[in-house]
Amino acid sequence: MRYNAVGEEGVKMRDIAEAIGKKLNVPVKSVSKEEAPKYLEWMTDIVTIDEPATAYKTKELLGWEPRQNGLLEELRRDETL
Length: 81
Fold this sequence. Notes:
single chain; mainly alpha; flat
């Protein structure tokens, strides 16, 4: 059996991009799925896939609960990437 240990679910790509853009002081632009290949090239399929991860079963079966910061919280910290 495999267990998924993700602390958060449904983090939007837009929120990730905005956090990284703010950290690096670069503008972030929203683009359609059709426009994405122009900007993302080979990463388009990875970035545009809608396949959320969940740790529901891991929590239920093992009683596991995440203790560390979530992705967005880490990206928004005052330290550099």
